[in-house]
Every structure is written in structure tokens, then in C-alpha cells.
Amino acid sequence: MLTTILLFIGILVIVIIGHEFGHFIVAKWNGVKVEEFGFGLPPKIWGFTPKNSETEYNINLLPIGGYVKLLGEEGDNRDNPRSFASKKPWQRIAILSAGVIMNIIIAVIAFTIVGMMGTQAVIDESEINSDKFSNVATFIATVAKDSPAEKADLRFGDEIQSIAGIKVITQDEVTDIIKENIGKPVEIVVKRGEQTLAKTVEPRENPPEGQGAVGISTQLTGMQKLSFFEAFKLAFVRIYVIISTTLYILGQMIMSLFTQAPLPAEADVTGPIGLVQVVGDIRDLGLGYIITFIGLISTSLALFNILPIPALDGGRIVFVIIEWVKKSPVSQSLENKFHIVGYSVLMLLTLLVTVRDIIKLF
């Protein structure tokens, strides 16, 4: 468990420090004084100011965020040329959006590396003997809650090698053998990272709708190694898919507030503790999955921060644009109130999701 927590913190360090470094470097380029650069949220547990530096670097107790404190970011010191508030609107927008851009860069790098290492691509059975793919196998894509698969500790990413002693490759082979063993204990051998594990399940006769006899869904995949340019191009496709899918789910969640439409299963929100569990699941699957997770988290952080939510980068950009259009500063006290309310709501939601994740553990 400690290894999983340390790995999770390491992933956060990459995406959060990268995000804050974007703000930091663009602020420096525009002549803004950076007073603090912090990883995590207060209280502060350690900090130092390098010799001849004007910036204090801090490590804080809660590793779920970070910050860069700029001179004049609260609208003060407008007469100081090194103040954030003194800069032109386009400069402030550049500084505020730099963290998001840096997260996209991290995601592009992560997905490009994975593509060149070799990535599992979902394929059709007609492509099993194609020269484009190697290591063709069927993997577990989802595990239904309270199903025989979950009780047997089958997990997302497990490669199914055999069922009832019969080697399987395709999804149809998996389905056929399970059907032949309805109501009888059957051994499923899976590969999880470097481990080969044997799990015993008993396929159900009348499973809940959409779950199947064992409670898994599967995907036929093959390993595909890409050239740098192919992987680089595919990285942007992956980022687009993540962003478009997330926006669709957010739209469905908003619609559900005003209608009786059911939420999609993907709308289940996960907090820090839930993410630690996810890291635990992917840790044994190999380096490629970990790097992919970094790209996913970095893309999600970029999207989340650019949304026009008070206290986040997107919310602050909205106020700069309003000032730019009306050609006069927005009331600083009004803007601060918006950001305080937004920050408080975000912290409350984080707390509620964290409490729910803890309850799920028991």
C-alpha cells in the first residue's frame, strides 16, 4: 500500500509541478515577481528560499494541489511594474493559461512515449493475424460490482489466458466456454503484469441485465508499436477523446439536474482515495499503464482548470476578459468573493467525494 501511495504522490508531483511551472515560467517571462511556488495545500511543512532568489519554494501537507503566488495577483500593487495586476490583459491571460498548456504538453509527451513503447489497441477478430499487431489477447475491460468476477478478484487489465484449462484468445472463445460452465466452478487463469494468477468463479444462470454470467466485459487487443510521428499524432487524438468524453459526461450530469435522465456509469466521480485505488490496480500492469495514467490525469487537470469556475484558472481568465472588454478593472472585492465561494465549494465537494471513497472501502 505504501508503494502505491508513493507512486500516486509521484504522479501528482509530475502533473501539479508541471502545471505550476507553466504559470511560473510565463510569469517570469513577463516580468512578474513570483513570491511563492508551492506543492500541495497548506499547512506548510517545509520551505526554502535559494540564495539570490526572490521566490520561496514550499512543500505543504496535503498533496492534492499546488500554487504559484504572484505579486499583485489579488489586484493590488497596480503601480508596481513587477505586479501581475499591472500587466496587460493578454499577458495575464497568458500567465493564467500557461498551467493548462503545460499539462497538455505533459500529456502529449506521456502518450507519445507509450505509443513508441507499444500500446494495446482494440482490434477486430479479422486483424488477429495482421502484421500490424503482436501479442493479441483478450483483456478484462470492466468488472461488475458484486459479481462472481469481483468476488474472485478479477480486475481491469487482466489478460485472460485460459478458462477451464482451455487456452483462449478471442472474446467469442471466452463467452462460449463460460456458457458451457454455467452453475459450475471454473478456473480462469489471467496474467496481471508479471504475475500469472488462477481465479475460480462460478458463472450465474440469471445474471443482472448487462452483466453476463461472470460479470465482466472484455476487449480483444493487440500490441502496436508506432513511430515517433505516428505516436505523436495519436497523442493528440487521445487527448481529444478524453476531453470530448469528459465534456459529454459533464453535460449529462448537468442535464440530470433538470430531467429524470439516468446518469451514465462513467459519471461516477472519484476523489484522491479512489485515485489511489486506481493507481494500485494499474501498478502491476506495467510502466506503459502508469505513463498512460499520467497522460490521462494531466489532460483532466488541464480541462478542469480551464473551465470557467471561480478560483480556477478559467474563472480568473473570465474576469480578465471582462476587464478587457469594459476597459476598466472589475471590482476586486467582488472578484475575490466569487473566488472564495468557488474555492469553498470545490473543497467541500472534494471532502464529500473523499468521504464517499472511504465509505466504499468498508
| Rg of Cα set | 24 Å
Q: What sequence of helices (H) and strands (E) makes up the elements?
A: HEEHEEHEEHEEEHHHHH
Number of domains: 2
Summed up, the helix count is 9
Low-confidence stretches: none
Strand content: 15-25%
According to DSSP, the number of beta strands is: 9
Helix content: 40-55%
Question: Which shape, going by the Cα principal axes?
Answer: elongated
Q: What is the overall pLDDT average?
A: 86
Q: Structural class given helices, strands, pairing?
A: alpha+beta
Euclidean distance between termini CA atoms? 16 Å
Largest sheet: 7 strands, antiparallel
Short synopsis of the structure:
The chain is α+β, with helices and mostly antiparallel strands and 362 residues long.
Overview of this structure, please?
The structure is a single chain. The protein has 9 helices and 9 strands. With 362 residues, it is an alpha+beta fold. The mean pLDDT is 86.
